[in-house]
Queue: 3 jobs
Job 1
Amino acid sequence: MDRQELIDQLVEKISGVTDIVVVPHHNPDGDALGSALGLSGALKAMGKSVKVVSPNGFADFLAWMTDAAEVISYEQKPELARRYTANAQMIIMVDFNGLSRVRGMQSLLENSKAFRIMIDHHPDPEDAADIMISDPEVSSTCELVYSVLKGAGWNHYLSKELAECIYAGIMTDTGSLSYNSSRPETYHVVAELVERGIDKDKVHHLVFHSNSFSRMRLLGHSLGQKMVLIPECKAAYISLSTDELKRFDFKPGDTEGIVNYPLSIDGVNISALFTEKDDFVKISFRSRGSFPVNKFSEAHFNGGGHMNAAGGESKLSLAEAIRQFETLLPEFIANLESHS
């Protein structure tokens, strides 16, 4: 079934409901929050009762987004989140392809009687919704949400402020159009958002240039003291322990984008960032060219994503996770080369 047929089904189903909950993934980034708020705002303008219920909070640099203050965090207000989710006639899941991505909210979604819709751009989605609008070719879920709104004939409900949420999601998920952005359609969407009067300079400043002093010190520490080069693999990585994060007064979002910096080194095509959490190690992967970091992450770090941008995690210690990466990366590269 093509996308427009799925959108037509979505239009029919939404016409018969009033109470809708929109859910982004755990630790919502710019694309997750932007798509959730952009979509929910448009549905509110249509007269629907819509709540965005997030598994947890989001980074301060995204707090400017319209209606961001109204997002209900399950982690902070579990009873309120449960009530809205239980009473919803429809749940729209954005920017994730499997229910495990909502962590503690997974059972709420699994047990809900609501009609479920998934809008996402990650590959290999689970069969977790009644209507699945999934396209891994698009740059971001925000681009896909815009396409859905346009296909439904609802894009006129998208105010300038909501359009800025959509634009922010596209920019954050493409590194300001530096990856995941080879399709002409992406630029057509950006052009249409600019035509709507968005202040793109304001969005870039709020998202990319509103750093705290402690975040800048953490970035300097990461690049000056913690970056390790693996020249034989054309790779580099950065690791940050919980003690280091505490030393630099870490707040959610402070490590955003750090994984991209090693790719600016001449000859480096693969980058990884290891961030130690209380009970696991979070890993972000980026690459240039044809190296599939999503396949590498799927195979060894319980993760996935896109070819040039993926994530994963490890239950090993920080040091052991790094050793595993250093051991497995050359093997994975050699295996790729032998099958090319």
Job 2
Amino acid sequence: MKILLINPPIFNVIDPSLPAVLLEEEDPMPPLGLMYLASYLEKNSSHDVKILDCQIEKLSLEQMVQRVEEQKPDAVGITTMTFTLIDVINAINAIKKNNDDIKIILGGPHVHIYPEETAKLPGVDFVVIGEGELPLKGLLENFNDKDKLKNIKGLFFLENEQIVRTGLQDLIQNLDDLPFPARHLLPYKKYGSAIGKRFPVTTMFTSRGCPYKCLFCDRPHLGKSFRARSAKNVVDEMQVCTEIGIKEIFIYDDTFGADRQRVLDICSDLIKRKLDLTWDIRTRVNTVDKEVLKALKEAGCQRIHFGVEAGTQRILNVLRKGITIEMAKKAFKLTREVGIQTLGYFMIGSPTETKEDIEKTIKLAKTLKPEFAHFTITTPYPATDLYRMGLESGVLPNDYWQEFAKNPTKDFKPLIWEENLKKDELVSLLKKAYRTFYYRPLYILKRIISVSSWGEFKAKAKVGLSLLKI
């Protein structure tokens, strides 16, 4: 069987938390989920697997359909997120219009939250929930036998207009058993980043699941139990990346530093192997100390993304971050001292937050002195405790995300938390946050001095020009 895994063209992003100009300037990153599915099928089946990343190749819907026609797949799998659902539906319609015999399989965070609503959408043949490797393999092996499919966990599909639910597949406990993502199926040398220093760039997971319980966040398809790959397995993949010419890796773990000893073991192995590689991580301010940071620096880690979110302890407590302002200040200071860059994530418009609180968040962002700051408007996304709180309290009038999942329309506008401040005020404060952080003369001078190549200069200039439009 031939299966084509598609990262569809994106033209209708649903996300009120950023000015549109910043969304337009974001660099596409390699689709890790699809690469994992492809490598698993390559290793454990005889299916012919291909990946098409329409975003990095800048394909229109018409060009995507042409590429599908050239591949002649029996099935197409499409990664689906709530805020790209309109584009996924457009891709389905375009593929089915050209060849209705192709079976459409959807997976990803959105379908895990709304499997029945997704299975009922026109053109959708199968929905895969949870971690997709095992269910997708079972689906492809029993494609035309729905009786056998009923015994494969992780699937939703229609039979005689009725929804068939097969239950949820257990989470994969030993992630070392998974083959490395199939980067060879993508034009992997095309990927770069505006905040990176080297080219080409790839992405990587060294763990799945997050043990923390922040109010605004949820990764339901990956679970809440932290499952980590061994240090050797992680560094083996990094070495493979260097062997194919990759120079920089963005590690997309929710909390890379959750297991302190594993971090030290990864760094030790990297130092021993002397790989020509730089990389960055996402972690929490309460997971780093001087020993860990020194090890990360020596091992080639050049940037740490820290989720700070708020500039007052009261709002941090509301968001259930489990950190303090002092922890944030200490983490950024120590990271700066060892010579690792930082990126800080900040949110405005959280429950009970006032304009004065937001001003303190903007002030803290500058006080921490990160090389980059990322500000968003707090948005209640589906399946989060924040969304449930909004529905229960009446701040959110109805279950509008479920309505959107049932009947996706282009004019849909998700709500934000307008308890104390209205959307126009929050957007104005968001723009102020970006302007006051990035337009400081000393900050601009430091960024210019830090540029080490023409490619990096062009990437930074692109982002700089986008910020001027705010």
Job 3
Amino acid sequence: MKKNNSYTELSNIIKNSKKILLFPHINIDGDAMGSSVALCRVLRNMGKEAYILVEDEISDNLTFLNDDKYITENQDIISNPDLTICVDCGEISRFPKRTEKFFSGKVTMCVDHHGTSDGTADYNIVEPEAAATGEILYRLFKEMDVDFDKEISNCLFTAITMDTGNFQYSNTTFISHQIVADLYKYGLDSNVVSINIYENNSWEKIQTEALVLAGTEFVLDGKIAIAKVTAKILKKTGCKMNETESIVSTLRSIGGVEIAALVKEDSKNNTRVSLRGKNYADVSIAAVALGGGGHVKAAGCTIEKNIDEATEIIKNELIKEIVRYNEN
């Protein structure tokens, strides 16, 4: 990974760019969404032409952030971007259908907090110690002397609350709380954000969660919990795949479970995997081994196999992690 650039360097590059595209990772989560929309709003407030380029659907509980239509799937919306920025991801495998467009930027940039980030852009700020990319952007905005408003604050709060598990995960620090405390000065409405994120589940999602959890497989005396989201289940309930992500957190919450894996049938021969660790397990090791990435306690990957084959592959990798810890 390249050495980090300074906040001042990134600020100057952004200020000197007019047409900017943002690239959050596939299966966009709250940090990627909140960070991207916050940055896009800041850029537009500066008079820039800016859009967030995605390649899959946005989860219903995050669409409230997109009121001003920041998001598009149209890769030609800006033909020759001055600057392209990958947000909350640093590996091109995390935006596979947009890779060519990302490198079409006259200058490329990466703002991320994943320890597995490649940092292959021209300019990079990758800070694994940050609880969320939203924290990094907060510091960048301060360097840029941004006029914070309610919308920017709500977006950054979304990023931080979701990547810290509503401030419950071990990555939460006093800095996380300090940043959020400061955001209240600019109109942050944490109640509205929290209701949209955590209390906006569809009945279809609740039914799906029940069916998925009922099929959970427990491995190594319950230390590993693996559940599958199949196309058959989604067809039965009418739920969207992007609504199922939180199921992995429910799996992790089960007593005795150290690693939770949610295996999702993306297509007949393509499976997405979300991993969560609780106390000692480093799930990023398994994710990286299978071409993915992430954090010690939260990671993911895509396996080009059918869901049953992918489940066996990820199970074996997770068993290795439990064994590795016990041997040490």
